[in-house]
Amino acid sequence: MKITKSGRHRLIATACAALALGQGNAVAAQPLEPAASHIERTGATQGLSRMPTPLGNAEIDYPDLAKRAGIGGRVTIAVFVDESGRPTKTQVASREPMFLDIFDDASRRAAMGIRYTPGLDENGKPTAMWVNQPFKYALHGETPPRCTVNTAAHYPEAARAAGTEAVVGVFVNLDANGWPAKSGMAIVGRTPTNASLFDEPAKAALLKIRCRPANRGGLNVPSVAVVDIAFTPPVDKLPETPAQD
């Protein structure tokens, strides 16, 4: 089944509605305010004598859906900055979690609103270049859930011969104690995109662990999360290296 951006957002919207209806958590219906927005350190993607530097803070719109779900994350945007320090185009460079794209549009808009001191080449001349601009999303008084998944016992037998590595993104509902719920669990992304044989092992591995629960105002609360679950081939099952003559 094709994994779409709209499908991922529908999952989060449905979970928000369930939390707001009061499934053991009246606080969930009261969205927290975003923490003060700030620009993290910019990183250049090529050699230069001076990298572009942001002037002031960015205007970041915290997506309402993410706010209601109590979801945070980090997005790094690649920004092309011209010789005058003006951003002209953007693309998503990376995300944490990898498959949580709910902050992409807000981050790209924020990146286009930043002015920079121009970057300088080796001769001190203003030059256009790509830079990596991170944006962090967090809510006041909210500690997001954290899930650490061990996949060693769940690596699929069918992938052992090739020694395939994969990452699967799983959307999950967590109770106030951090236990994942099988109901509503869904695959929201994977890399490689055709590595669907890791989907069920990823779900099984997640259901075996207890996550650190979300905490709001000093209380553990039910929450939703997108968890990146990585698979690496067991060391004793790596593909053999051909013998040298």
Automatic annotation (TrEMBL):
<dbReference type="Pfam" id="PF03544">
    <property type="entry name" value="TonB_C"/>
</dbReference>
<keyword id="KW-0653">Protein transport</keyword>
<keyword id="KW-0812">Transmembrane</keyword>
<dbReference type="InterPro" id="IPR051045">
    <property type="entry name" value="TonB-dependent_transducer"/>
</dbReference>
<feature type="domain" description="TonB C-terminal">
    <location>
        <begin position="47"/>
        <end position="146"/>
    </location>
</feature>
<keyword id="KW-1003">Cell membrane</keyword>
<dbReference type="GO" id="GO:0098797">
    <property type="term" value="C:plasma membrane protein complex"/>
</dbReference>
<keyword id="KW-0472">Membrane</keyword>
<keyword id="KW-0732">Signal</keyword>
<keyword id="KW-0813">Transport</keyword>
<dbReference type="GO" id="GO:0015031">
    <property type="term" value="P:protein transport"/>
</dbReference>
<dbReference type="InterPro" id="IPR006260">
    <property type="entry name" value="TonB/TolA_C"/>
</dbReference>
<feature type="signal peptide">
    <location>
        <begin position="1"/>
        <end position="28"/>
    </location>
</feature>
<comment type="similarity">
    <text>Belongs to the TonB family.</text>
</comment>
<dbReference type="InterPro" id="IPR037682">
    <property type="entry name" value="TonB_C"/>
</dbReference>
<protein>
    <submittedName>
        <fullName>TonB family protein</fullName>
    </submittedName>
</protein>
<keyword id="KW-1133">Transmembrane helix</keyword>
<dbReference type="GO" id="GO:0031992">
    <property type="term" value="F:energy transducer activity"/>
</dbReference>
<dbReference type="GO" id="GO:0055085">
    <property type="term" value="P:transmembrane transport"/>
</dbReference>
<keyword id="KW-0997">Cell inner membrane</keyword>
